[in-house]
């Protein structure tokens, strides 16, 4: 497994979970999770529905007690610390703004709760609205704002009490794709500038990879893999993570030396790959189309335009379909008979 940069016990960890476990009806929904989040780090937790992401956030926020294991912030155990004393900020998917209040009333909410003097509240609200790109919006009613603007107000509200840890649950879930892509870049820049430590949960891998310093993939209450976006993308550890990331060229194989025996024939593997039976991933970029008569014989079944390339779906006798990533001008047509060779640099031997 790829190691995270911080061990859960690391003295630099702002947040540290050790064997954190939550059970519902006897079933572990968080199952002995070890996780450290360093000061200033942005960690995104990814995983399919029901894998325990929200339960993890709720446990850190103090909304869900652990059944066993421990959770500390700044090295202090939080078992007996109620939610409102943990100094963490939470922003949920449906951002739950107060519809009857204006923007100022929403952003200043936490500051009023904490008894900040009025002048300081006003200063902070002004600064935060500037920061999230809504200068001068303090008097607007939240109902008159667009979805993206409401999201920014929710973010300003979560940031206002200057939480030492900001937690985001599907922060951009409701928004359309182009707005999400823009906001995620802005968020990363904003958190970097403020030095905010962030633990975010999303099921959108694009969002997680764009936002995070480190990605944590969860499966059935456990951490399947943790690493930088590049590490996880380039070297998914097992078939679950590979398929979750959208890779479909995964087959059972047996590695011997620098070659794997697969239903697609012999596939070269990188030097030093683990030997013996495994699951094998061939990234679409490693499926190279060559002239018919060379390599593995395939027929083009379909093509999908993907903006930067064309995904070409290939059928071949007696083996699962293969996806190849082809340059826009070079993609073969459906029905074409072609040959395929594999590029070892794009092949990953996965843990069984
Ligand atoms: N209060 C509860 N009582 C019983 N079961 C619960 C409770 N809260 C969550 N669960 C169950 O725990 C599992 C994990 O739920 P959780 O909400 O943490 O998953 P998730 O990864 O956030 O999913 P999603 O992406 O759908 O929000 C699910 O099977 C869910 O049904």
Bound molecules: adenosine-5'-triphosphate
- The domain count comes to 2
Number of strands: 20
Which range best describes the helical content: under 10%, 10-25%, 25-40%, 40-55%, 55-70% or over 70%?
10-25%
- Gross geometry: elongated
Low-confidence stretches: 1-9
- Along the chain, the helix and strand elements come as EEEHEEEHHHHEHEHEEHHEEEEEEEEEE
> Roughly how many Å apart are the termini?
12 Å
The CATH architecture name of the largest domain reads 3-Layer(aba) Sandwich
Beta content: 35-45%
CATH level-4 homologous superfamily of the largest domain: P-loop containing nucleotide triphosphate hydrolases
CATH class of the largest domain: Alpha Beta
What is the alpha-carbon Rg in Å? 24 Å
Can you tell me the CATH topology of the largest domain?
Rossmann fold
Tally of individual helices = 9
Please state how the strands of the largest beta sheet are arranged side by side: 6-7-8-3-9-10
Q: How would you state the average pLDDT, rounded?
A: 91
GO molecular function, one term: ABC-type quaternary ammonium compound transporting activity
GO cellular component, one term: ATP-binding cassette (ABC) transporter complex
Pfam families: ABC_tran (PF00005), TOBE_2 (PF08402)
EC number: 7.6.2.9
């Amino acid at each position: 497994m790829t190691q995270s940069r911080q061990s859960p016990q690391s003295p630099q960890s702002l947040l540290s979970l050790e064997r954190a476990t939550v059970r519902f009806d006897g079933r572990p929904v968080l199952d002995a999770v070890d996780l450290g989040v360093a000061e200033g780090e942005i960690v995104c937790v990814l995983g399919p529905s029901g894998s325990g992401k929200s339960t993890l956030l709720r446990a850190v926020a103090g909304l869900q007690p652990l059944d066993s294991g421990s959770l500390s912030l700044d090295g202090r155990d939080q078992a007996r610390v109620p939610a409102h004393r943990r100094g963490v900020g939470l922003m949920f998917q449906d951002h739950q703004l107060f519809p009857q209040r204006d923007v100022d009333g929403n952003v200043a909410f936490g500051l009023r709760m904490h008894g900040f003097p009025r002048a300081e509240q006003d200063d902070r609200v002004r600064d935060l609205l500037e920061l999230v790109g809504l200068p001068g919006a303090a008097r607007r009613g939240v109902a008159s704002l667009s979805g993206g603007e409401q999201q920014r107000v929710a973010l300003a509200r979560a940031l206002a009490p200057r939480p030492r840890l900001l937690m985001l649950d599907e922060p951009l879930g409701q928004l359309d794709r182009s707005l999400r892509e823009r906001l995620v870049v802005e968020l990363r820049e904003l958190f970097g500038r403020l030095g905010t430590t962030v633990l975010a949960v999303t099921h959108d891998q694009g969002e997680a990879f764009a936002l995070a310093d480190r990605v944590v993939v969860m499966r059935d209450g456990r951490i399947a893999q943790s690493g930088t976006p590049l590490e996880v993308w380039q070297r998914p550890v097992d078939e679950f993570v590979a398929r979750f990331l959208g890779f479909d060229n995964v087959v059972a194989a047996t590695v011997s030396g620098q070659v794997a025996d697969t239903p697609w024939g012999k596939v070269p593997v990188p030097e030093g790959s683990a030997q013996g039976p495994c699951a094998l991933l061939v990234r679409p970029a490693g499926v190279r189309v060559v002239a018919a008569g060379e390599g593995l014989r395939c027929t083009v079944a379909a093509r999908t335009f993907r903006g930067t390339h064309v995904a070409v779906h290939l059928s071949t006798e007696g083996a699962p379909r293969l996806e190849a990533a082809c340059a826009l001008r070079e993609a073969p047509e459906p029905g074409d008979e072609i040959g395929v060779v594999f590029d070892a640099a794009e092949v990953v031997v996965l843990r069984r």
